[in-house]
Design goal:
By secondary structure, the protein is α/β, with parallel strands linked by helices. The protein has one domain: Luciferase-like domain (TIM Barrel, Alpha-Beta Barrel), CATH 3.20.20.30. The protein is built from 13 helices and twelve strands. It starts with a strand and ends with a helix.
Amino acid sequence: MAELGMVFDRSFPAGAVADYARRCEGAGLDQLWIIEDCFYTGGVSLAATALAVTDGLKVGIGILPAVARNPAITAMEIATIANLAPGRFVPGIGHGVQEWMGQMGARTPSPLTTLDETITVVKRLLRGDEVTFDGREVRLDHVRLDQPPAIVPPVIAGVQQARSLALAGRVADGVILVEGAGPTYVDWALEQAGRPAEFRVVTFTMLAVADDRREAYGYVADFVAGLVHDRRPAFTVLPFFDDMYARVERGGAEALIDMPADHWREIGAIGTIDDALAHVAALDAAGVDSVNVFPGDDLETAWGQLENVSALAVEGST
């Protein structure tokens, strides 16, 4: 069974991360993923704090924007955390939202090249190599980390589109697929990546459970409608996407509530507890290593979601 975890949303107060991490570990979850988005809270400091207050919980960052830090500094930060909690830290690196990168004067003319070069040199530095690199976007001159990690963590790419997934398959150790990713999209994403060996797949997923399926659908219908309208890649590869889009255009979020249950199970752990378990099992069968529930932007709601994820972990192990 895929490992189960929770996401710490970008909007949560930084001071809540220690309690959040302890509760995740206490509930028997395997992982906690920290969201770093500009200009909310910093993923490095939050991840270090979460690791410091737990004993076995794995902590990931999704994602460190490739251009937000110099790659040598990114590698230094990753190595430091990896040495503080050997084997428990999983860093993710991605393009970052280009509008945000522009706001801070760091927008790159080639996001694909920058991500490729950044992941390449970060991985070499984490292995302990001395790196001289003269790329299109990244340049290093005889850089070597003084304390490379004793256990080198996987560096995974937070990407969505076909060309970026192909890049991830070439240079990264895995991929983070954001909420909305179901088994069909996972299969498509792995195909774009070239199905490399020992390639980790992490998903962030929506969770909404109730005894009445329609009630559960109603919890997330507005959010899902927004993703449909934005043509999120995780949705556009679905054979029923045109129907979803037409429903939203015709009747708004409410029109999605009448979608068949198997459509909802494809896009999230949504419906009854059995529907949620079926979604996780389908992701596991598709090759997903860990499923992490995205709790939304309300901390109180997240506490309730934690109970549901814990229940999924218990039910899935029986």
